[in-house]
Amino acid sequence: MTDPLHQFEIHVIAPLFSIFGVQFNFTNAALFMLVIVAIICALLYAAFANPELVPSRLQSVGEVWYEFIHNMVRQVMGEDGMKFFPLVFTIFSFVLVANMLGMFPYFFTVTSHVIITAALAVFVILLVVTVGIMRHGLGWFRLFVPHGVPLAILPFISAIEVISFLSRPVSLGLRLFGNMLAGHIVLKVFAGFVVSLSAIGITGIIGAIFPLGMAVGLTALEFLVAFLQAFVFAILTCVYLNDALHPGH
Amino acid sequence: MTPQDRSRRGAAGGSDAEGLSKRLHDLSERIQAETAEHAPPQGPGAGDQGSRYGVAFRLASEFVAAVLVGAGLGWLLDRLAGTSPFGLIILLLLGFGAGILNMARTSRRMADSEAAAKAGPPINDDDDDED
Fold first, then answer.
1. Does A225 contact B109 at a Cβ distance shorter than 8 Å?
2. Which of B68, B97, B105 sits opposite A170 (nearest CB)?
3. What average pLDDT does the segment A84-106 reach?
4. How confident is the model at residue B13, as a pLDDT?
5. Which domain holds residue B62?
């Protein structure tokens, strides 16, 4: 029986150096992150190296990609949020290409590791806090004290608001991680059924048609989830940054 | 539809007005059948199973994350201040509250963006009659 968790194992490719007894290695995760960045750079360079008025196929892909995020940032954050466009575009592209690369057989899915998604999510929330305090000073913390609330229950409301804020990076990181992890495990389990059923004999081969159909359907669903999760991650980044820019809403 | 088809029909129908109107009727029927075949399925829940799954998962994760954060903070407070088990109990309950708040906010945001999408310019899906 194939091990559905084998695909998430991290291998050391080359040991790099150690600081204070902590060993730093170049792993397959690091390799795939480099590949992701290389793919994004190569795609965008190829798309816009020779821009034409009537875009070629690759250039239209690049334009749709750019305008999709451009419109999203403008809609959620308004005109003064456009200075965060490069950040949102980078996050969206990284997550999208990471998810899509994970759909190839034998490839490593970077976003199925909680440390990657948590690092992205914590970075976004720290940025929200930094931008909020830079823009509005300590008055930004009034986000946690909604007005019009009776004084008696204000401490509870504030505590709930603080917990709600702190839960943002958790849900942001866990959602992406959970979707990718669960999807890939389920896919692998159904594919494993096909292999072990067809080993039985002729009845097993006939019975293996059903898990094979499931695996095909789930693959299509996984492509959808891969795009959807990248989109959700990007739009929530916009929504949270909007809270830092315009805390009144 | 094919040229052979058309010429055959033209030969069979003759050139009189009755044959012409019959052919027109025939054609409009075929066009109707064709458009019905190619029209996207109408009604809620027909084609957006994937995005509904996304919505459900998003709401669930918002709730679970708040409960987890509440429980984690309570456990940390108990460890640091030695107030076990009251910190965990109170903050877990507050975490439930924050989870409900998260879900309410998320669903309101989703309803807002859905309304905005409906109020925007409608998608032009009747471009069949241009030619």
1. no
2. B68
3. 93
4. 46
5. 50-119
